[in-house]
Specification:
Chain lengths: 760, 159
Amino acid sequence: MSAGNGYKVIGTRPVRHDGVDKVTGRAVYGGDTRLSGLLYGQVLRSPHAHARIKSIDISKAQALPGVKAVLTGADLPKTGDTIVDLGEGPARLKYMSDNVLATDKTLYSGHPVAAVCASNVHIAEEALDLIEVEYEVLEAVLNLREAMKEGAPQLHPDMTTQEFGEDTGRTSNLATHFQHKLGDPDTAFASADVVIEREFNTATVHQGYIEPHNATAMWNADGQITIWTSTQGSFAARAQTGAVLDIPVSKIKVVPQEIGGGFGGKIPIYLEPIAAMLSKASGQPVKLIMTRPAVFESTGPTPGSHIKIKMGANKDGKIVAAEAYIAFESGAYPGGLVGAAAMCVFSCYDIANGLIDCYDVVLNKPRSFAYRAPGSTQACFATEHVVELLAAELGIDPLEFRLKNSATTGTRRIDGVVYPKMGCKEVLEAIRDSEHYKSAAPSGPNQGRGISLGYWFNVGLQSACTASVNNDGTVSLSEGSTDIGGSRTSIAMQFAETLSLDVDDVRAQVVDTDSIGHTDVTGGSRVTYATGWAAYKSALDVQAQMCERAAQLWEVEVDQVAFEEGVFSSGDKSYTFKELSGHLDETGGPVIGRATVNPDSGVGGSFAANIADVEVDPDTGKVQVLRFTVIQDAGKAIHPSYVEGQMQGGSAQGIGWALNEEYYYNKDGQLDNSSYLDYRIPTSLDLPMIETIIVEVPNPGHPFGVRGVGEANIAPPPAAMAGAIADAIGVRLQELPMKPSNVLAATQASEGQAALAAGG
Amino acid sequence: MSKIHVQTTINEEATEFLCEPRESLLEVLRETLGFTGTKEGCNDGNCGACSVTLDGVLIDSCLMLAVEAEGKSISTVEGLANPEGLHPIQQAFLEHAALQCGICTPGFLVASKALLDHNPEPSEHEIRHWLAGNLCRCTGYDKIVRAVLEAAQTVRASA
C-alpha cells in the first residue's frame, strides 16, 4: 500500500486499531461500565416547560426498600455568580449547576429536579414515582420570535441584555446582541444593480447520537472521585464536574470510555455530578444511563433560528454587499451558538461590504449545544438561497456565480478574519469537474438538481501526547482526545509517518485525566489537526532522544547522527529504529517522547459542497434523494476512508435536517416526538450511496497540511436539497425542515398562484 | 420481587439465570450475564442497537422479556467470531471502515448475519430495506451497505 506524495503512511487505509474490539462487542462504552457493588440511578424530570418548584418531598422515595440515596438541587453546592470557562466559552456557573439539577425553577420539560440510586434500575424508577414535587406552573415561551417580544414570559428575572459588549441593565429573554460590520454596506447596497432579501426559519434539531448519555462515579472514602463516562472531552468533563461540585480537579479522575457518538452534544455534562453525589451519599459506585426520551427532552438540541439575508450584486456578477439578521435560540440558558453562525454566514464569498446582526435568545427548551459546525447549517441554508436567486436574476449560471465570488486567500470576512490559503475555489471547481455535475440533471416529472457550498472554520486548542518506545521498536502512544470516529488511528499514522515506522507498530490509546496532559474536547474538527500535531512533535522528540542514544553507542557527537527513512546513521554505522530500540536498556533506559501543543494560529478552515438530485412525490410532498455527492477540502487526508466517512455522515445528518428532523412541542411545551420513531433520523432506506470527492489544498499551518474534516460537510445539504426541490417543483422553500407537509403546501400554493395567473 | 429461573442457550452455550419478570432480555444480557456487546440505544425497539437472534429470528432484545428466553437459542455479537478468526461480516466492516463510533455496529453485524442467513445474495435495496431497523448516525450507511455486499460475496464463495 503506497500513499504517494512522498508519504509512506499518510493517505493509506489501514484497519483501525480499535476495530476488532468494536466488531466483536469487546469495546467498553460508558454504559458498559461494571463495578463491584454497582448501584443504578434514575433522574426525575419536570413535566412542565416553565414552573417554580415550591417544594420537593423525597421521604417516601427514601423509605422504599432498595433505595440507597435521593438527591435534589438543594444538595448541590451554592455556586453564586461565578463565571467559568470550561470548554464551551464563558458561562455562569449557576446556570450550569441548575441545568444539572434545578433549584428554584424548571425551564423546560425534561429539566432534572431529583435523582435516586437503588440496587436495581427498576427500584430507582419506582422511587421516582414516590417523589412529590409541588410546582407553580408558569407561562412558557417556546417560539423564538415570541420570546424576543416585550412582555414575553421571562425565564431569568435577573438576566440583562448584553448589547455590543455593554450591559444594558434591561431584563429580557434577549441574552446578547452583537454586530460585525465591514466597509460601507448602505452605500454598496444603494449602488447595487440587484438586491434580494429573504427571510428564513429553521427548526430545533438534535444531534441524535445512538448512545444515550451516561456516567458512572465512585466517590471514595478519601475524597477521590473517579468518573467513567462517554464524553467528547475528559478534561472538560472533569473541569465542569469540579466546578458544579465545588471540588478541585485534582480530586477527580475522569476515565473516558468508548463514546457512541457526540457531534457536539457530549461536550456538556449532565449526569456526572449526579452520579458522584449519589455515590458519596450511598458509599457505592453509581451508574446512570439516560433514557432515550430524556436524551431528546433534556440534552443537546441545536438552535432553531430566524434569519434574514439581504445581498446585492452588480450586473457583472460581483456581490457588493451583504446583510444578515440572525436570531438563534439558546434554550433555557444564555450562551448559544449565534457567534459561530456569524462567522459562517457569508464565509464562502469575497464581499467587501457587510453587516451581521446577531441575537442570542433564551426560551423554554433545553439548553442549546453544538451540533457539527454549529450555526453554519442554518446560515448556509439562508445565504445559499439568496445566492441562487441573485444568480438567476442576473442570468448567470449559479456555479459560475459562486466561482466569481468565491472566498480566497486574503479575503477579509465580515467578522474581520482574513483567510490564509483556503480551498473554496478548488471545492467549487471540483463540483464543475465532477462526473455527477457533468451528467444530465434528472429530467423526469418533479425531479431536480441543486448545488450548495458551506464552511466551517475549525479550531486548534490544546493537545498532549506521550510516546513510549518499546525495546522491540514498537511505540505505545498515549493521547487525551476521546476517539469518536477512528481518530486513534489517524493520530498513530501521523506519528508513524514522522519516524517512517509501520503504522501497526504504533498503538495509540486514549487515557484518563491522570495519565496525560490537558487535552481539549474532541470538537471543532480539531483532533486530527491538533492532536495529530502533538503526535508529530512527540515523534520528533523521540527521534532526538534516539539520536542521543546512537551517539552514545557509537561514541560520536549527537550532531553526527543522522536519521532518515527510519534509519539512524553516522559514517559507516547504522541502526534501524527497531535495532536501536533494542539498545535502550544499556544506554540509560526507556525513551519517552512527549509534546504539548496549542496551535490556534495554524488552523485551516474547510469548505464543503454538495450536488443533490431529488424527486418530489406530488401527492405527498415526500422528497426522495436520487443521487448525492459531497465534496470537501481535507487539506491532507490522513486516512481517506475515515475522511470519506465524515463527509458521508455529515451529509446524512444534513439531509435529515433538510427533510424531516425537528423538535415538535405540544401546546403545553412538552416534546411530542422524543423517540427515534417519531423524531425520525434517516434510515438506510432513506438514502442513496453518498459519493465523495476529497479535495486537498494543504493547510500551510500544519506539518502534514491537515484541515479538520468533521464538520463543514453538514452545512451545505439543506441548501442543496432546497435548490433541488426548487428545480423539481418550482418553489424554493424558506423553512426547515422541508417535510412532506411543507413541500405539499408550497406546491399547492404555487399551483394556486399559477391557476390564478392563468385564469386572470 | 421474586426471581424466576430461566434455562436458555446463548451463543451455543447452555446458560441459566435468575431474573425478575419485568427485566428485558437486553437487561439480563448486559447487566446479569455480562454480554455488554449488545448495546442499548433507545430501549423501545426503534434503533436496533440491541439486535440479537432468537432461534434464528432477528429481534430487538429490549422488547423481549428475559423470561421468554426459556428453552430458546440466542445469538449475540459475541458469538459471531470463533477461534479461527472473525466472521466475514466483521472483517468486511473493518476493511470498509463501516463504523465510526461503533455503538450501532454490534446490532448491524447481527442484523446483517441474519440477512445473509436468509438471503445469501441480497441486492443493495434489499440490504437497505433489511437494515432500516438499525439506526446509524455516523456513517450515512454507505460504507455499511458496501461492507454487507462484500461480506455476502465472501460468504457465498466460502459456502
